[in-house]
Request: fold
Amino acid sequence: MANVKFFSGEQIPLEMHKVRIVQKLNLPPVEERLKCIAEAGNNTFLLKNKDVYMDMLTDSGVNAMSDRQQAAMLVADDSYAGSATFTKLENKVGEIFGTKYFLPAHQGRACENIIAMTFVKEGNVIPMNFHFTTPKAHITRLGARVEELLVDEGLKVTSDCLFKGNMDLNKLEKFIVENREKIPFIRMEAGTNLIGGQPFELSNARGVSAIAKKYGIMTVLDASLWQDNLYFIKQREAACKDMSLREITLELAKCFDIIYFSGRKLGFARGGGIATNSKELCEKMKELVPLFEGFLTYGGMSVREMEAMVVGLDETMDEDVISQGPQFIKYMTDEFLKAGVPVVTPAGGLGCHLDATRFIPQVPQTQYPAGSLACAAYIAGGIRGMERGTISEEREPDGSERMAAVELLRLAVPRRVYTLSQIKYVIDRIIWLYENRNLVGGLKFVEEPKVLRFFFGRLEPIGDWQQKLAEKFRADFGDSL
Ligand code: F0G
Reply:
């Protein structure tokens, strides 16, 4: 977003786009919201969108497309093989990341499946700055495990550290020395999702790459959230201040043997893909694409989405475009801090993250504070956030609960979607909730799937705290929605 000062002195992010297509929203009254969350098994993934006012579940596949993207979708070439649309996408990914080869896949986790099936064997261990649910699930499914080697500061919910997503290079080298034979690759995640969309530095990626080269280990970048990470590097990493976004991206890409991304996040469309400069690596992964995804020139993606992604990747190289999300998130974070609401600092990308541990300290981790807070935010304002805490973990092999390192409620900010008044509404309702935090209680599972339980697990509140919260809302807000 452009640097525009308000005469009034107010500091608010100014949109460098205008809205040309709108979708009607619905805000059910609080009594309805109470029923809806119960019907959804107290899992915000299971809410029906018609019952949600602010859908802040994710930034995945819900970012607004530009007019140029929509126009590009009309000229897609849908031939099964040899589609011109594929060539465009392959060339655009090559231009952005400086890579020669591109394998299409239907979304990010499909890339993770291909990479894991090609390179991961039972007993392996994959060092990474921090895990994300889907790559971890693919790695553990194959009998391997992940090792998180994030800098210590990364797990501190409040911090001044501007690059909480950095890998701890000393820990990485030590770990490699002790486990060299078990490591098929090192994974770095841009815009580290589960710790609050926190970035790593270009210099850190270079450090990881140097260590990997020293020990002859392959490096893999998850670039799904690269656009936020890129913005933060440009803003915060002094050595990159005078580099263009394209230069930073090309320099970053040099640090990795394989780059994959969820096109539901990077490129403002839906899909995904794997890029590399190595013919050998490409050949190894290639045959899984037609087996699981689709032919090599679409990989399960709609050609229209591929056209949109080509344009979206170019738009990602525009600071006005990629600053919108982080600046809205910073605005939310700053307003919450003013009101004393515990949030992850510094503000990251992807969304604003409430710290459930400090928000509702009365709820023990065994009763899923981040999940409880997600239900409470829905009751308070029709706001659908996402639990990023213990419910998002999987149990240990012995069935005991693996407690998450942090209990966060993520309020994702889909890019170019919401207006500032809607963001202000969310801030208002969350501050109200914070004032009434003593009313919030815990949850327990009633249906608990073994894999990725956060998607379809069902829970119920412990006690009648949800009714009390809804009653308090009605008492405070009168007949307002
Ligand atoms: N890597 C990262 C860092 C992600 O955030 C995601 C998805 C994936 C990989 C998987 O990509 O969804 O296209 O299969 N994150 C979504 C989210 C689900 O809501 O944070 P996908």
Residues 58, 60, 107-109, 132, 134, 189, 193, 222, 224-225, 262, 264, 272 surround F0G (CB under 6 Å).
